[in-house]
């Protein structure tokens, strides 16, 4: 099973190396890892996607929590949360019919064209993993030249909102 | 700034003085420190505090770190060692990994190249914090002289609380030389480190008591965590109150007296037959401060397969790691046991079970053949144990057969009297560990029971023992081989000798063609080596001479090596082969 783990860590040198080293040395499989600043300058937020059964997950959580510079660990998969992945993708789209087709798909997926070249477009798109994957599939026939993703970040919803209050919950690709 | 007197607390101090003063303020009375270019200011500062802090100069940084472990293992206080940057620091690595696996509180201080050259591959530069991330409990590179007082406070706190472990503090040379007016009262910055709440809930205590009450065949499985939490008295009280037999891991030896009728001695791969049978048949396993290590469990799915398992440990990551627990309890063991003692009642009817355990113990003791004129390892250890039973004695070991025989045949009665590199299994541990114990306990008889392979790995520490006046005794069980590997060769590799003979390669033993039970030559000359270091030394090979030889060793006023000629074809038994079950135990 796929779990999203959110860890609050002290913003000190080496904490990322420590955590990724621990995960690697214990043989845990990480699907994605995103790290960035938080509202508190002293702390950073790491978001992991880990695949494994409940026992593996319990171990990952406990081993993370054991690291002195890790302040808090939450497995947010069981909660009601919003997750996002940001992607930049460069697609072959020569002016004309192909380019129009790509732009139409970008609109449907609520992406944005952020750079226009002679023969290609760069597109920015964010959303849940399944949406990003679906968009990549749609782009394949045109020819993907380059692609970069941030890895997933996630946040627990404030009490009331149900899953359907996610405006990203599109009928397509989601 | 004065070069001879310690400076007052409120005035401007060098970083080196701040660090050394913080050691003194944390109650450190011995440090094992080997100097070098990047740690010279620290050593200069050590001379200014020499009236309160003894600096012992080991002859290798690894020896210093193992000595700090010996100090920590026998006192329960934080052991402290120091080394310079680069090779000095990397020489600490094995001992830090060792301390991590055995949960030994250690603070290791390393010199580092100055901050402005860090990252330039400077002379004797090693990114030691990077190297040690996975093998320390915590680590810190100090980059500002104003951090030192706080970081040292954090280092001692993290090393000694929760599940103890090693902490590395890396100190660049320019930070040692910088000055500041230290803020001794700055509070720790450890928002992610909370161990005060590791206490069993009343409901968990009630569940444990209820399980004990209903048990018909209970066994207590006690490990190093019982010693680390100073819970031996509570464990003894629990056994007395409930009548439940107790088995110990190699880390737990001494926590329950081996001469108590309820003691089942050590369990696991080379544990007693009766402890392993008791765990096989028990219906309740009370696991205290243990981690279900593979050397204990063998095939983990078959371990205690009929039992309900209570697992009490201060480290949440140990619970359910190797073996799922029916009653998992994250708690300091001492707290949990003391709470349990308030309400626990003896099981309704366990006398048939205890009787069964004691019958097994009577019928299947640790044993060895005492034939011939020579000395077997088990006998030498038993005799030493008998001769030292009435005096304060601390025993360390290297790794291998002699380690397991010491665990089997030396009768430990008190916690913190036994030092074994149990998790990492580091050869060369014994001599420096005994040295550290001796530094902490000048009145105790500190004995390293060692093998010839292990002793040679840190034999240079005999110089430390002599020069620092640490009268450590070495009982050297010299079989000219790496005995445990030889045993595995005999059992699993048709006896093919693969670099397990420690003598000259033109000897017949080198290819496994030796005649007889004893190696034909003795190499190296350990008596000559010991005497060269200034130690007393003797050799003994006849059983009839053993007692007198041990007496000479024990009574010798300084460090002493007793080189005992022993056979190389003895096997440590019983033995549960790796990954197998108690039913595959080899007893003959």
Tags for this model:
A: alpha+beta, Alpha-Beta Plaits, 2 domains, 5-stranded antiparallel beta sheet, 4-stranded antiparallel beta sheet, 4 helices, disordered C terminus, B: 588 residues, alpha/beta, Rossmann fold, 3 domains, 23 helices, 20 strands, globular
Concise synopsis of the structure shown:
The complex is a heterodimer of chains A (174) and B (588). Chain A is α+β, with helices and mostly antiparallel strands. Chain A has helices at residues 15-25, 54-66, 97-108, 129-139, and strands at residues 2-10, 30-37, 43-51, 70-75, 81-92, 112-116, 120-127, 144-149, 153-156.
Describe this structure in words.
The complex is a heterodimer of chains A (174) and B (588). Helices cover 27% and strands 39% of the residues of chain A. By secondary structure, chain A is of the alpha+beta class. Chain A folds into two domains: 2-78, Alpha-Beta Plaits (2-Layer Sandwich), CATH 3.30.70.260; 82-158, ACT-like. Chain A, domain 2 (Alpha-Beta Plaits, 2-Layer Sandwich). In chain A, a hairpin with a 3-residue loop joins strand 6 (112-116) and strand 7 (120-127). The two termini of chain A are 19 Å apart. The relative contact order of chain A is 0.19. With 588 residues, chain B is of the alpha/beta class. The termini of chain B are far apart. Chain B has three domains: 13-180, Thiamin diphosphate (ThDP)-binding fold, Pyr/PP domains (Rossmann fold, 3-Layer(aba) Sandwich); 202-363, TPP-binding domain (Rossmann fold), CATH 3.40.50; 377-565, Thiamin diphosphate (ThDP)-binding fold, Pyr/PP domains (Rossmann fold). Chain A binds chain B through residues 9-10, 13-14, 17-18, 21-22, 25, 42-43, 55, 58-59, 62-63, 65-72, and chain B through 129-130, 133-134, 137-138, 141, 158, 189-193, 315-317, 319-321, 324.
């Amino acid at each position: 099973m796929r779990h999203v783990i959110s860890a609050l860590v002290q913003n000190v040198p080496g904490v990322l190396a420590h955590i990724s080293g621990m995960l690697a040395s214990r043989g845990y499989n990480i699907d994605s890892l995103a790290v960035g600043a938080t509202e508190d300058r002293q702390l950073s937020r790491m978001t992991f996607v880990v695949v494994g059964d409940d026992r593996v997950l319990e171990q990952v959580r406990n081993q993370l929590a054991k690291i002195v510079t890790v302040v808090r660990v939450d497995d947010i998969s069981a909660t009601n949360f919003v997750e996002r992945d940001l992607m930049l993708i460069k697609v072959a789209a020569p002016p004309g019919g192909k380019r129009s087709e790509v732009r139409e798909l970008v609109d449907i997926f609520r992406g944005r064209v952020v750079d226009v070249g002679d023969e290609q477009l760069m597109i920015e798109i964010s959303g849940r993993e399944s949406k990003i994957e679906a968009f990549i599939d749609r782009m394949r026939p045109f020819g993907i030249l380059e692609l970069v993703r941030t890895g997933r970040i996630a946040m627990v919803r404030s009490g009331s909102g149900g899953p359907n209050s996610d405006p990203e919950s599109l009928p397509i690709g989601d | 700034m004065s070069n001879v007197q310690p400076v007052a607390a409120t005035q401007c101090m060098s970083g080196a003085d701040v660090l050394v003063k913080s050691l003194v303020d944390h109650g450190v009375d011995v440090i094992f420190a080997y100097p070098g270019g990047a740690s010279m200011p620290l050593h200069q500062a050590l001379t200014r505090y020499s009236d309160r802090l003894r600096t012992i100069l080991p002859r290798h940084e690894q020896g210093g770190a193992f000595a700090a472990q010996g100090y920590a293992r026998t006192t329960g206080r934080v052991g402290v060692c120091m080394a310079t940057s680069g090779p000095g620091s990397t020489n600490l690595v094995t001992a830090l990994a060792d301390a991590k696996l055995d949960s030994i509180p250690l603070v290791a201080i390393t010199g580092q190249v100055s901050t402005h050259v860090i990252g330039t591959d400077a002379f004797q530069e090693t990114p030691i914090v990077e190297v040690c991330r996975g093998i320390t409990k915590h680590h810190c590179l100090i980059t500002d002289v104003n951090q030192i007082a706080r970081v040292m406070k954090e280092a001692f706190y993290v090393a000694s609380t929760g599940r103890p472990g090693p902490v590395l503090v890396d100190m660049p040379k320019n930070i040692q030389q910088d000055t500041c007016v230290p803020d001794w009262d700055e509070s720790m910055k450890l928002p992610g480190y909370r161990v005060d709440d590791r206490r069993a809930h009343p409901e968990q205590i009630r569940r444990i008591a209820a399980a004990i009450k209903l048990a018909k065949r209970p066994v207590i499985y006690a490990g190093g965590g019982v010693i680390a939490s100073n819970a031996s008295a509570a464990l003894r009280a629990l056994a007395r109150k409930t009548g439940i037999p107790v088995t110990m891991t190699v880390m737990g030896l001494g926590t329950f007296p081996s001469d108590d009728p309820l003691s089942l001695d050590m369990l696991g791969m080379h544990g007693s037959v009766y402890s392993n049978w008791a765990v096989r048949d028990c219906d309740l396993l009370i696991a205290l401060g243990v981690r279900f290590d593979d050397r204990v469990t063998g095939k983990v799915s078959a371990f205690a397969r009929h039992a309900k398992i209570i697992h009490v440990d201060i480290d949440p990551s140990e619970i359910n790691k190797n073996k799922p627990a029916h009653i998992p309890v994250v708690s300091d063991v001492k707290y949990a046991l003391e709470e349990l003692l308030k309400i626990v009642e003896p099981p309704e009817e366990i006398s048939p079970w205890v009787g069964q355990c004691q019958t097994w113990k009577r019928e299947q003791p640790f044993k060895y053949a005492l034939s011939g004129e020579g000395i077997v390892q088990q006998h030498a250890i038993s005799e030493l144990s008998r001769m030292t039973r009435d005096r304060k004695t601390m025993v360390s070991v290297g790794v291998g057969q002699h380690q397991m025989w010491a665990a089997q045949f030396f009768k430990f009665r008190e916690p913190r009297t036994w030092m074994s590199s149990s998790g990492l299994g580091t050869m060369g541990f014994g001599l420096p560990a005994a040295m550290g114990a001796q530094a902490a306990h000048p009145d105790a008889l500190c004995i390293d029971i060692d093998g010839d392979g292990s002793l040679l790995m840190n034999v240079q520490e005999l110089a430390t023992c002599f020069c620092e006046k640490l009268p450590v005794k070495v009982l050297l069980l010299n079989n000219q081989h790496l005995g445990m590997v030889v045993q595995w060769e005999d059992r699993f590799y048709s006896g093919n000798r693969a670099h397990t003979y420690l003598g000259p390669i033109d000897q017949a033993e080198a290819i496994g063609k030796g005649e007889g039970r004893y190696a034909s030559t003795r190499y190296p000359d350990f008596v000559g080596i010991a005497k060269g270091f200034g130690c007393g030394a003797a050799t003994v090979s006849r059983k009839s001479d053993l007692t007198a030889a041990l007496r000479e060793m024990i009574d010798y006023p300084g460090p002493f090596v007793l080189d005992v000629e022993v056979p190389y074809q003895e096997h440590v038994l019983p033995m549960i082969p790796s990954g197998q079950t108690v039913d595959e135990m080899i007893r003959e």
